[in-house]
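User: Show me a protein chain along with its predicted structure.
Assistant: Here is one chain, sequence first, then structure tokens.
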Amino acid sequence: MVASHATVLTMLPATEGEIEQVTGYMRSQAPDRKVTFVQKVYSENVLHVRHDVWDVHTNVDRWWVLTQPMNLYSQEQFPNMDLAVTFHIGCAFGFRAANASSSRQYR
């Protein structure tokens, strides 16, 4: 028997407000696409900041939408959710560090 290496994504609980926020963000970033499916699949706390991962399907393609800050990543370019999470968190903390150092310059 051959073992399967497929990643199984389990839905996490999500509020209607969260779903609408992710759907609205996706519409604002890709107005030519219609959102057909939205599912929260992962959540991780890093240094007291919660980052949620959403699997978003459109009539054209699929996206990861991550929060704090909210951004989207094509599942064609980021086929692995872990890669998208690592990239997103690295960018988020890089932006925070840059903002912190620039605000210290003007004090």
